[in-house]
Fold this sequence. Notes:
- The chain is of the alpha/beta class.
- About 20% of the residues lie in helices and about 40% in strands.
- The protein contains 4 helices and 14 strands.
- A 9-stranded mixed beta sheet has the order 3-2-4-5-1-6-9-8-7, with helices on one face. Strands 11-10-12-14-13 form a 5-stranded mixed beta sheet, with no helix packed on it.
- A hairpin with a 4-residue loop joins β7 (about 105) and β8.
- The radius of gyration is 17 Å and the shape is globular.
- The two termini are about 20 Å apart.
Amino acid sequence: MLFHYHFWTPHVEETERFYTNNGFRIYQRIGKYQGDFQNFDPPLVWDDFREKDILFRIIEARKGCINVTFGYGKKSIFDHIGFWVNEKEQEFICQNAVNLNWNVDRGERRTFITTPYSFRIELQTNKDLVDSVTDNIKIGELRLEIMKKGLEGDLSILFGKPVNSIKSIIGETVTIREAVIKDFSSNPLVDPNGVRILN
């Protein structure tokens, strides 16, 4: 199940505000301050640390079955999407990635697959990354802009079945153009990184 996306962004505070204004809760903030990575998690708010020169590595926002993360970057760059899988599915998908000659980076907590479409796919077996695994609030679909054809076919090979939650258009950049999020705002909204969110 598709549950996650990650951006690097110069609009860190604005991105947090957008998601919290739309019902997400901030689970954690990790940033580099005076040479060390430190936590600035809630109940801390931006007024508590805005004057400090913190380089945020990750801020994690959660709502229902959704986990959105972002960290500081000089410009808005879409990095990866994440899927929940069980361990058997993970093995199957990783083998398919190897067969496609895609790089597989297995970690203790998560596995990343590098696609030839200039973004990565995270495989996650831990369900403690969301507030609820049964909630109706979930990502129904992501519409990606990419620079070459073939994504949907390759995802079908990777997962061994069609991945209906990912659609693509060909364009000049690689990003998420639209996210269909069930039980979001009734009006389409655009986050600070250009993701148009539809209910």
